[in-house]
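Q: How would the structure tokens look for this protein?
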Amino acid sequence: MSLALPVRRLRTLSPVLPVVAVVALLALPVSPGGEGGAGPADALSALVVLFCAVRLLRQRRRPLSRTAALVLGLPVAGLALAAMGASSPGAGIGGLGRYLQVFVLVPAAVLLLIRDRSDFRLLAWSFVGLAGWQGAVGVHQYVTGTGASYQGEEIRAVGTFGAQDVMGMATVVSFGLVCAAGLALGRSSVRQRAIATACALGLLLPLALSFSRGAWIATAVTCSAQLALAGLRRAVKAGAVVVAAGVVLVGGFGVGTAMLQERIGSITQVADSPDQSVTDRYTMWAAAAGMWREQPLTGVGLKGFPEHRDAHASLALSAGSDTEGAGAGYRKQPLLSPHNMYLLVLGEQGLIGLLALAGSWLGLLVCALRGLLRAHQNRVPGLDCALVACGLLVWQLTDFLYADIGGPSTVLTAVVVGVAAWWALVGAEEAPGGEEPAGPAGRAQALGSGGREEALGR
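A: Here is the predicted structure in token form.
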């Protein structure tokens, strides 16, 4: 009898907990001077895929619907073709594995491991928790002058990711802010909305101190879209709160420093007097476009950008970006990607690869927005889940204009795609009565009725 109780409790544990553990592992510090390769979270994500496969075999059920298999499997054809065109078998296999991890395998596993909206919200709150931790570390770095170097001062907030991945903390904080905003704008309990609102406002400070222009732009676009999609009344209330928080941050805490104002102003300085980072970015964009013109259909092959960069880049490109601080010494970091996901795919995979990947993302976005519309019309519950899923997807697709995959935080992109895929392909298709019953017993009864298998298998 004593042994039966723990077994019963284990059976009621959510299968999404391994995915939460992947998110939690990104709270660990990255070793200074690391090369940005696969880390503990990437290794655990591979185990999550294996765990999902074993679980499917034990339950003997059809894993994905035809629509889900088509949308998530669409990039495979372009990736396989680009892998065959790589400069070496090692580069082809390595690049293929990375793309499959981020855009196919891990997203499919996340989709299959989320049982219901409670699991979805648990995963969303894990994003918020990770963002709060990384944001707190980043603010401490700014206050104490122990962050990454920025204009000669070690004040840039990078969290535990270090100076070699200055976008890591900005990405994590942005994801947490988007999740908190979606949870705050939904129709959940007053307590959850109040906590989510406080978290979203608190994450504005570390996001500002990251000095990441791409993250600022993507977050502004996404939160504006979330406000518009949530409805006019909620948009007005939330807008007033954001304005008040901005006044407090700038006026009360002195966040509006000269460096921050200069960084904001540099967003529009793309033609008159751009800084070297902007010049490098546009030079690499032009190089990626040149590679595409050379091989328009298939590109130069996976991981081919560094090898072909110098042949297509102008002399305006610098030797690399200077990184220093946050526990690491000075280092010249080479520029190995164009910092634009669409141009990276276009240059390395050609038009075929871009249409396959972008087609998959567009399919998810259309299905997610359709589900959000149904949630507004009360044909399905979970407006907060819809706003979180659509927000994460919009943020990622916007940020891809200024960034690409790479670094320890890349595994979060895979989880984000999986979260969006669950809402777009499963959660948004549930009937109005499909909200999980309260309590473990009711949830187990709902799962035993076969509704989950029907949602995935139709």
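The first strand starts at residue 148 and ends at 150.

The beta strands are 148-150, 153-156, 321-325, 328-333.

Upvote if useful.
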